[in-house]
Amino acid sequence: MTGVAGTENHLLALLPQLAESGLDVRLIVLCEPEKPMYAYAAQMSALGVPTELVSIRGDLDLRLIGQLSGRLRALGAEAVHTHLIHADWHGLPAALRAGVPHIYTSGHNDDPFRRRLPIRLVQAYLWRRVTAGIAISEAVRRFMIAVEWAPPHKVHTVHYGIAPRLPNLVMRAAFRAELGIPLDAPVFGSVCRLIEQKGLSFALRAFAQVLARFPEAHYVIVGDGPLRESLCAEAERLGVAAHVHFAGWRADAAERMSAFDIFLMPSLWEGFGLVLLEAMAAHLPIIASNVSALPEIVVDGETGLLCAPRDVECLAAHMARLLSDRALAQRLGANGAARLQAEFSVSKMVNGTRAVYQKTGALRED
């Protein structure tokens, strides 16, 4: 792990609930020596899941496999479940070496780099050695089967889930005041890492078109990443910098979404998009790309509006439509909050995960 993002937040919701359901859950976090995740480990431990930090050096650290294998033996682990590719490449061989009887992996994304043949071959080998796997969306399940050559019978889909919450009106006022945005101004918002995958350059171009028609509008981007400087420069070039606010990484990003009126997710690909559930919890209408798993979450015309990735004209049209039709925006936001409770609850995620363990022999229900 190199930081706290969707997968890490997913584990914060899942693992404590699995522990509360009666499982003895331990977490081992692989992190780069220069990026120790002390706060994350402390947060997880405080939620009842003992957490250890282990340093990883490079993409393939053979020393680490032996170290993890010994640790698994010492713990007497009966099942190992890995998340993300570095955990797969080190945790799965370590579990096999330690003789752990039940071994699981979870797929969280359909990253293009996974299409490289050497990676596909490694993943295919590992798939044949694991007990089963969990895909966080049907899109990721299809990707695992087609690209990683995962045996279809081993791959089970369990969506992410989060707890519902009420919009935070105090945070809405405070965050807007911090950024210098009037309380009555319409605000678009995104929460993500500032990387190419998130398609923010297309959102900025669309916002420039919208701002010409709605000069009181603002766009807030919460998050950080390698593209921050170039995105700031693009906002300057487009003449919208005074209305675009790069708020940086915030530990309480989900709460700060209360300051938004409309949520934008113009991703080029996305394994799931946990932040969409946060937007639904905040009763926000969503405008998103119709790629990967996003149409599984956002129902076009019911909980949000979808458009093709990189389609600036469509994105701008959807943004203008929701600013012009506040009743539609409110209806989409309310429908999204209802869909969250019905389809993406924490209990549904926990029960789905336990069902995979039970079906494959790692968990026996009394």
UniProtKB/TrEMBL annotation:
<protein>
    <recommendedName>
        <fullName>Glycosyltransferase family 1 protein</fullName>
    </recommendedName>
</protein>
<dbReference type="InterPro" id="IPR028098">
    <property type="entry name" value="Glyco_trans_4-like_N"/>
</dbReference>
<dbReference type="GO" id="GO:0016757">
    <property type="term" value="F:glycosyltransferase activity"/>
</dbReference>
<dbReference type="InterPro" id="IPR001296">
    <property type="entry name" value="Glyco_trans_1"/>
</dbReference>
<feature type="domain" description="Glycosyl transferase family 1">
    <location>
        <begin position="173"/>
        <end position="337"/>
    </location>
</feature>
<dbReference type="Pfam" id="PF00534">
    <property type="entry name" value="Glycos_transf_1"/>
</dbReference>
<dbReference type="Pfam" id="PF13439">
    <property type="entry name" value="Glyco_transf_4"/>
</dbReference>
<feature type="domain" description="Glycosyltransferase subfamily 4-like N-terminal">
    <location>
        <begin position="5"/>
        <end position="163"/>
    </location>
</feature>
